[in-house]
Design a protein that fits this description.
Blueprint (H helix, E strand, L loop, with lengths): L7 H14 L5 H8 L3 H14 L19 H13 L6 H11 L6 H10 L26 E9 L9 E8 L5 E7 L4 H15 L4 E4 L18 H8 L3 E4 L7 H17 L5 H8 L3 H7 L1
Parallel strand pairs: 1-4, 4-5
Antiparallel strand pairs: 1-2, 2-3
């Protein structure tokens, strides 16, 4: 005797269709009871007369999906992940597979594959404190968020250094990236010099309250730092943020770069690093 697997919904539908076929219930009443169209009721009645209750079971049950990934492709992708991208996240793996290996698969499929293989762990969402959003500036170049991120960017291959990051407030683009030994005045001056030569003079800069940007004696007597005097001569307004959340675009960019840039720079030479840093604009925005 063959066993037919049916859901509760299908069994309920079978009872109503059986009554309809036997003449105990009109098709209109059956349509209202099952919340489906009259046309669908007629179709189900036809299937019931032809195959009985079995005809109402879902026809795809027990069959493999037509969208199922080819086992050879699955094995190939898994090999690339384990050998070349062992500590990459699903989105970054997807991008690198398309760019380096010419394999196009969805991010969600990669995520599920990595979870099944124990490579990726599902992260619990943290309790996020929400802040009132400040409206973006209307045009590119009006306001630039600037900050430095000290980190072991080259892991154990080089000593700890600082990445000077400049993000446009209107578009979220990474406008300037520069590695310096430490967060210092010279690094910010070189970054501003290259930004102005490439993009022109911005209207304003949005920074934290580091002593490079704001004098610690400013409360007692208004006093500009050397960086502040230079910006005043260039007619660039210098705005100081009261919290890291206030300049969230550059802070989020730091988080994305600390995750992606360190991994992408593994095993590449000096020119390879230069190419990666100078092509990170769209990558970082997708990551955020």
């Amino acid at each position: 005797m063959e066993i037919i697997q049916m859901s509760k919904k299908e069994l309920r539908r079978g009872e109503v269709i059986s009554k309809t076929v036997n003449g105990d219930l009109t098709q209109k009443k059956a349509s209202q009871e099952l919340s489906i169209s009259l046309r669908q009721i007629k179709r189900l009645c036809k299937r019931f007369r032809k195959a009985g209750l079995e005809g109402l079971a879902h026809r795809s049950r027990g069959k493999s999906s037509q969208r199922k990934m080819n086992p050879s492709t699955r094995a190939e992708v898994l090999g690339f992940i384990k050998n070349d991208y062992p500590d990459f996240g699903p989105q970054l793996v997807k991008e690198q597979l398309e760019r380096r290996n010419q394999i196009k698969v969805s991010r969600e499929w990669i995520r599920r594959l990595m979870i099944d293989e124990g490579i990726w762990k599902v992260k619990k969402r943290k309790n996020i404190r929400f802040y009132q959003r400040r409206n973006r500036r209307s045009q590119e170049g009006e306001l630039i968020q600037i900050d430095g991120s000290p980190e072991y960017w080259f892991e154990n291959r080089d000593p700890k250094c600082c990445l000077i990051n400049m993000v446009d407030d209107a578009t979220g683009k990474l406008m300037e990236l520069r590695f310096v030994r430490e967060e210092c005045l010279e690094g910010y001056f070189l970054g501003m010099k290259r930004y102005i030569e490439t993009h022109g003079r911005p209207l304003a800069l949005y920074s934290d309250r580091h002593t490079i940007f704001k004098s610690p004696k400013a409360k007692e007597k208004p006093k500009l730092t050397q960086f502040g005097r230079a910006m005043k001569e260039l007619d660039i307004e210098l705005i100081h943020a009261n919290s890291p959340q206030a300049k969230g675009r550059v802070e989020r960019a730091h988080g994305t770069l600390q995750d992606r840039l360190i991994k992408l720079m593994k095993g590449v030479g000096e020119r390879g690093r230069w190419c990666i840093v100078h092509n990170l604009g769209t990558t970082c925005r997708r990551g955020n």
